[in-house]
Amino acid sequence: MATLAHVSSLNPGDVDPETTGRAVRRIKDYLAAHPDSDRSIEVIVEAGAEALVLPRATVVLFASVLGHLAEGHGVSVIPSAAELTTQQAADLLNVSRPFLIGLLESGRIPFRTVGRHRRVRFEDLLDYKRNDDL
């Protein structure tokens, strides 16, 4: 069952772009030098500590997040199975809440109701956005 989204966000200025830029370059260099797509990657978080083992796909996603931060852009992480409030969904589409509700009521984006509140699956929102951008 989907749960109401907990959105984790970093805004521009929350991290140092120079530091994140160096980190993303090192990660991308490592990924390019080790193209084996199935391997896990060991990351040293702290000198002398045990290495953290991460799936390669996780490291690729992390590099993408760091790249956006290095460029001064904010980043949000939302689980794909999450459900959003109408305000969260409107914010992600960069539209007003009343406009989003019109999309929901017209059937262009599926939703469900919980009591009196509408909930939108993040996956459905992405599907709408992909089709709308065509």
How is this structure best described in words?
With 134 residues, the chain is an alpha+beta fold. It has two domains: 8-77, no CATH class; 83-132, Orthogonal Bundle (Arc Repressor Mutant, subunit A), CATH 1.10.10. Helices cover 45% and strands 18% of the residues. It has five helices and seven strands. It has helices spanning 17-33, 56-70, 86-93, 97-105, 122-132; strands at 8-10, 40-43, 52-55, 75-77, 83-84, 112-114, 117-121. The strands form three sheets. The protein has a three-stranded antiparallel sheet with strand order 5-7-6. Strands 1-4 form a two-stranded antiparallel ribbon. Helix 1 runs antiparallel to helix 2. The longest helix is centred in the first third of the chain and has 17 residues, at 17-33.
Keywords:
single chain; 134 residues; alpha+beta; Arc Repressor Mutant, subunit A; 2 domains; 18% strand
Indicate the topology.
Blueprint: E1 8-10, H1 17-33, E2 40-43, E3 52-55, H2 56-70, E4 75-77, E5 83-84, H3 86-93, H4 97-105, E6 112-114, E7 117-121, H5 122-132
Antiparallel strand pairs: 1-4, 2-3, 5-7, 6-7
Shape: elongated
Q: Tell me the radius of gyration.
A: 19 Å
Helix content: 40-55%
Structural class designation? alpha+beta
| Widest sheet, order of strands | 5-7-6
What's the domain count? 2
Element string (H = helix, E = strand): EHEEHEEHHEEH
Number of helices: 5
Mean of all residue-level pLDDT scores: 89
Distance between the termini: 30 Å
Major sheet details: 3 strands, antiparallel
What are the low-pLDDT stretches, counting only 5+ consecutive residues below 50? none
| Tally of strands | 7
Assess the beta-strand content as a share of residues: 15-25%
